[in-house]
Structures are given as structure tokens and as C-alpha cells.
Design goal:
Structural class: alpha+beta
Radius of gyration: 18 Å
Number of strands: 2
Distance between the termini: 15 Å
Order of helices and strands: HHHEE
Largest sheet: 2 strands, antiparallel
Length: 82
């Protein structure tokens, strides 16, 4: 599993996205300048297997997980069953 930061406050984004992200990124902050990147500690993560969809069950394919290999142009995740 990988957790990543997304720079939602980048000046390249629309103002609504920047506002949602908590404001513009301060590239001159000591946290960024000292490390060369922003980081965050993660205390815990809880993961639960998703329930199979009705279509999966109807076709006899109970899904136990998915691998996301990218996004289609409309932003829908591409799913491969595992």
C-alpha cells in the first residue's frame, strides 16, 4: 500500500481546489526547504475488504479486492478484479 500527498494547493489548480486543499502551498516553509518535500506521519490505517457488487454476485464472481491501474478520461478508476 502507498499513501501519497497531492499538492491540491498548487497555484496550477483552480481557486476552488486550492480553497478545498486549505490554501496555496508555501514552498518557502521551513518544512519544505529543509527536507525538499512535504511529508506527513501516519499513525494508523484501517483497511477493510469491500463488498462485492450485485453484478459480481449475480455472475458468481464475488470480488475480494481491486487493483487500480489508472483513470479513464472521465476520472473513473480502471478496475481489475483480484
Amino acid at each position: 500500500m502507498q499513501l501519497s500527498l497531492w499538492p491540491g494547493g498548487s497555484e496550477d489548480y483552480a481557486q476552488g481546489t486550492i480553497d478545498w486543499a486549505g490554501g496555496e502551498i508555501d514552498w518557502n516553509s521551513s518544512d519544505y526547504r529543509e527536507a525538499g518535500y512535504y511529508w506527513f506521519p501516519v499513525q494508523s490505517v484501517s483497511i477493510q475488504c469491500a463488498n462485492a457488487t450485485l453484478g459480481d454476485v449475480a455472475e458468481g464472481r464475488p470480488s475480494t479486492g481491486w487493483v487500480y491501474t489508472g483513470n479513464m478520461s472521465e476520472g473513473t478508476p480502471v478496475r481489475e478484479e483480484s
